[in-house]
Amino acid sequence: MEERGKKINRERLTETFQQLAAIDAPSFQERQMADALKERLTRLGFAVEEDKAGSLYGGTAGNVYGFRKGTLAGPPILFSTHMDTVEPARGKKALLGTDGRITSDGTTVLGADCMSGTAAILEALQEIEEEGGECRDLEVIFFIGEEKHLRGSEVFDYTRVKSKESYILDLTGPVGTAAFQAPTLIQFRIEVKGRAAHAGLSPETGIHAIAIAAKAVARMELGRVGEDMTVNIGAIHGGENSSNIVPELCQLVGEVRSYSHEQAMEQTRKIDELFREEAEKAGGSSRMDYQIRIRAYRTPKEHICVRRFRRACEKLGLPCTLVKTFGGSDQSNLYHHGIPGLVLSSAMELVHSCQEYTEVSELVKLTELTKLLMQDRDSADLGE
Fold this sequence. Notes:
This protein is of the alpha+beta class and 384 residues long. The chain is 31% helix and 26% strand. The radius of gyration is 24 Å and the shape is elongated.
């Protein structure tokens, strides 16, 4: 293992995380967070811009983009997190325990998703600045609305981005883990229509929408379908909350995830056909609407961003574990705009719950890793 150099300022890193976590930033309410990040980036020598993405969603802030010229040869590298947190996200407190674990007070999420990665980026930049150290040309993007299916990165203007590789700090698990592949996520809504009738006096004249839906669901493959796909029905609503009416309508919402975009689309089509068949048998009808929320990608393991990640992990004595994830991140939209990359495990655990936590020791590792990636030379410089 190579010498790590100057130690990360643990106290300042911890304080930065606590300050960021204390900012209320639920999805599309990221104004205060955007202002704080713009101010910090400007002090660190970045040219900073904010777009108008928030106005598309009735939000308070846009995506924050920054660029800083470096001293090392080679194209720039992009680092990114998101500004928003899931609810309950108002009045958050980041409490540091004697064991180095940071938690909320139990009534809100902590916001380590995604403030642990944000704090690591800011501290890595600060350390480089104070050392007068060399680094690459750097780009950063802090997105809005990630927790609402990547809405900020969906509408970002990627023509301004110079980087051809990226690191998104937004994954659970030990530092040294990175996701190189993620699925397509398709959300669908199905409306089954039958015919209302009095359930006691003339049930035979009705067409039972809930019964149609039940038969269709019974025919579906739910849960894990093969090795690379999951299918779920998340909610069903039908009828008029009355026991004496044959229900005319039944609505269902669900999703399909697959590492193959084509297979996800095919599965969605099959579900639509299945519901139509059952509805036609009973004399009713069925209609599906769907949205592609996330599109599958796979960053090749031989890509330069993976090689950089391996080198940095080796220097730090980290395990360098490459994994697939069935969750989504802004990397999906970056990839499909010509910016392959990795999603790094970022010192956050039990996310999307009030039991969420981070640990100072993991924040330090993440900052060390981020700093090394920012300072990595092109492979040609290393004789690869």
